Predict the structure of DNA-binding response regulator.
Amino acid sequence: MVAVLVIEDDDRIRLSLTLALEDEGYTVHAAATAEEGLLRQRREPADTVLVDLMLPGIDGFECIRELRRADDVPIVVVSARDDTHDIVAALEAGADDYVVKPVATKELTARLRALRRRARAAGAGPRATLIGELEIRPQAGEVLLRGQPLALTRTEFRLLCELAEHAGQVLSRQQLLERVWEYDFGDERLVDVHVGRLRHKLEDDPGAPARLVTVRGLGYKLQR
């Protein structure tokens, strides 16, 4: 059974999310603070973590960073804060997705299912792809740059594999949203922020990318 950790300080919302997810067949671990949630995740790792941003003590942004330092568990922010700065900051901290409260249970569970499908599909595809100094090994879940391994999250890995499969071709933000996140709706900022994170790991100079480039008005392309 798939386990979800809910880190939410509002008792009513935490209980509501717990009951809704349990009704959908998930095992739910719940925590009222980031400190409690991080400890719970270390002792009894969940398959996916839901994090509120406005937490007492350690806030949601730092909680995401701490979770991401430990492993590549899928992280979804569930927050009432819908400001662009907050969304981008949460994604840059390492979140895979961002949902604004109040959230419909069906939408949330659809996103959780998509995250699980992406995690299972991470090892699918050809044995290895070599693009210049970049080697992508889908079945092993590895990426090497000049022979050195890169630490990528599952979402970053999926994004890179999709771009590599169409190396030399431009993929629009909507195409990437559909193929990587498996959403036929959603915020294209998810794509922009994850491309930015990938560039910091792939490029010698992220400010002047040579591998993962922007084609203005069209989308992104991984250079052959």
In short: The first helix runs from residue 11 to 23. The first strand starts at residue 3 and ends at 7. Residues 129-222 form a domain with the Arc Repressor Mutant, subunit A fold (CATH 1.10.10.10).
